[in-house]
Amino acid sequence: MMKLYDFPGAPNPRRVKIFAEEKNITLDLINCDMAKREHKSPEFLKKNPSGKIPVLELEDGRCIAESIPICRYLESLVPEPNLFGEDAFEISFIESRNRHIELELWTQIGTSWVNGPIVGSMGLFKQIPDAKKASDKNVVAYFERLNSEFSVSEFVAGNRYSVADITLLSAIDFASSMVDLKPSEDLTDLYRWHNLMLARSSSQV
User: Fold this and answer.
1) Neighbours of 171 (CB within 10 A)
2) In terms of domains, do 128 and 100 share one?
3) CATH (domain of 154)
4) Taking CA atoms, which of 3, 21, 146, 187 is between 20 and 30 Å from 61?
5) Is 32 within 8 Å of 39 (Cβ atoms)?
6) Domain shared by 195 and 121, yes or no
7) All residues at 6 or more sequence positions from 110 whose CB lies less than 8 Å from its CB, including other chains
């Protein structure tokens, strides 16, 4: 069985776990205790020199790092239900929407996280309060943008569920629970989408 290096509450491994659930793929979850810095150990760095999770370890010992490449590998093993797109346009459109979320939302949530109180209590980084103030503002603005987009679109990338929805769900849930950046309750179209996502059994991982 393939192994997925995971840590409870970590958003990027969750993306893979949701994806695998949608594919009905069973993974052996291996706890990589980030609080103990196990992801920076010499043994783990052999699996991923970047020292990050998730990492998918194949049965022959080869490893794949990063959420989207792992998901692409799983899609190649189990093509249906398709989550990356079926024709040239849809593949490109889903990729572009996923990249928007990663580059314009995830990066800002990450800045707020690194400069926030939980990471601050670990004493790992010199924090920059002004950076957090700016990234918090950018996250709020992106949530407002999403609300507008969901007023005319049921899903992130068109009219069906895709990997881009998984990326966004993981981002919003992490921001809400761990970064104190829960979307405003008046963003009704964003919450309509969020409730639709939570109704999927895969989202409960």
Assistant:
1) 24
2) yes
3) 1.20.1050.10
4) 21
5) yes
6) yes
7) 135
Query: In this structure, what CATH number is given to the domain that contains residue 37?
Result: 3.40.30.10
Q: Is residue 68 part of a domain?
A: yes
Q: CA 180, CA 116: separation in Å to the nearest integer?
A: 9
- Per-residue pLDDT of the chain (205 residues), as tens digits, is 999 999 999 999 999 999 999 999 999 999 999 888 999 999 999 999 999 999 999 999 999 999 999 999 999 999 999 999 999 999 999 999 999 999 999 999 999 999 988 876 777 778 899 999 999 999 999 999 999 999 999 999 999 999 999 999 999 999 999 999 999 999 999 999 999 999 999 999 9
Last residue of a domain, one of 77, 105, 139: 77
Region of 136 (left: φ > 0; alpha: ψ -120 to 50; beta: rest) is alpha
Place of tokens 């969020």: 194
Domain, as residue range, for 178: 88-204
